[in-house]
Amino acid sequence: MRFGAPIMLAVLALVPAAIVAYVAYGRRRERATAAFAARPVLPSAAPVRPRWRRHWPVAFYGLAGTLLVVSLARPEATVAVPDGRASVVLATDVSGSMQATDVRPSRLAAARSAAKAFLDDVPDDIRVGAMGFNDRPLALTPPTTDREEVRDALDRLESSGGTATGDALQAALTALERASRTSGQGRPTAAIVLLSDGASTKGRDPVAVARAAKKAHVPVYTVALGTANGTIPSPDGGRTRVPPDPATMRQVAAITGGQAHTADDAGRLAAVYEKLGSKVGTKDEKRELTAAFAGGALVLLALGGGSALRWFGRLP
Q1: What is the value of pTM for the model shown?
Q2: At residue 10, what are phi and psi to the nearest 5 degrees?
Q3: Which pLDDT score is estimated for 218?
Q4: Non-local CB neighbours of 238 within 8 Å, separated by 6+ positions
Q5: Average pLDDT per run of 10 along the chain, which is 316 residues long?
Q6: What confidence tens digit (pLDDT) does each residue in 38-91 have?
Q7: By C-alpha distance, which of 108, 117, 147 is closest to 130?
Q8: Shared-domain flag, residues 220 and 151
Q9: Is the same domain home to 151 and 247?
Q10: Cα–Cα nearest to 304, from 128, 24, 61, 137
Q11: Strands 2-3, 75-82: pairing kind
Q12: What pLDDT is recorded for position 180?
């Protein structure tokens, strides 16, 4: 949290002094009461004593004053809000290893289902594109607000071939650059959600492309899918292990300012995509919280007055 007029916070230095003064005042009252009547006759002179309740109105007033001072300092918070000009590309690995069934019903089926759920969580005015990649990038649909077009593209994904993660990242960057040119409103927010279940085996180095994405201010949110024990059929009739490569995915995300995730089952993958759906395509915006703090102060003032009237029949 930041403050537009932080000098006003200096007034808060009076709070400890006010507490000390209140405690001293309470002790003077107790001494005066003790001097007026002997302790043995106090219960008959004042049979009902408020005890702790007498402090509540003052506590409410004190908190209200503190919030009012903070509101005068014009507090501000930075919040993430949807950017209507944003574009996001879903880049999904469709290499042969996506046939593995360690993620039920298969890695590819789980990825397709999670991507469709992602579309439901992204704000409607954010453009989303979809692409697959194996030995090469497979163009499916450019960023668009037509969700059905993207869903149809995801349904066409089929598993085969190797993994060209770096080439896929470069193709996604190119698609986002084209989308920004067509927006005609400067550089909009852009992001890539990259899902892969294995190490890159062909094409460009994904780490090198990640550095280019950083220069273009495009964060890459990565998802490493699968378990270390995942296998697919091999040509000799046996099984070939196809473990994910979370280390490279973490490096790509870290370089670009995105986030890295791992998913070893369909439920975890769905949760990751749900989280990303509410995060990508957003921009940071400053919001002034003066009204909120002032409103809280008014509520506390009302509570203080109400408790004083209820318990003592008067306002302090």
Answers
A1: 0.70
A2: -60, -25
A3: 95
A4: none
A5: 83 80 72 59 52 77 88 84 82 96 95 93 90 93 94 94 96 91 68 94 96 95 95 91 95 96 93 86 77 90 85 71
A6: 555 555 555 555 566 777 888 888 888 899 888 988 888 877 666 767 899 999
A7: 147
A8: yes
A9: yes
A10: 61
A11: antiparallel
A12: 82
Q: Which residue has the tokens 């043995």?
A: 40
- CATH number (domain holding residue 230): 3.40.50.410
- 140 and 26 inside one domain: no
d(CA 233, CA 217): 40
Nearest to 241, CA basis, from 102, 94, 93: 102
DSSP of the chain: -EESSGGGGGGGGHHHHHHHHHHHHHHHHHHHHHHHS-GGGHHHHSSS--GGGGGHHHHHHHHHHHHHHHHHT-EEEEEEEE-TT-EEEEEEE-SGGGG--SSSS-HHHHHHHHHHHHHHHS-TTSEEEEEEESSSEEEEEEEES-HHHHHHHHHT----S---HHHHHHHHHHHHHHHHHHH-SSS--EEEEEEESS---SSS-HHHHHHHHHHTT--EEEEEES-TT-EEE-TTSSEEE----HHHHHHHHHHHT--EEEESSHHHHHHHHHHHHTTTTEEEEEEE-HHHHHHHHHHHHHHHHHHHHHHHSS--
| Contact by Cβ (8 Å): 48, 295 | no
Of 61, 71, 77, nearest in space to 291 by CA: 71
Indicate whether 156 and 231 sit together in one domain.
yes
Number of domains in the chain: 2
Task: State the Cα–Cα distance between residues 137 and 203, nearest whole angstrom.
Answer: 10
Distance CA 114, CA 118 (A): 6
Residues in the chain: 316
pLDDT at 60: 87
- Residues 17, 102 share a domain: no
Structural domain span for residue 141 = 84-280
Q: Tokens 């759906």 map to which residue?
A: 277
Residue 282, pLDDT score? 66
Rounded to 5 degrees, φ, ψ at 124 are -60, -30
Which tokens in the block code for residue 252?
A: 């790509």
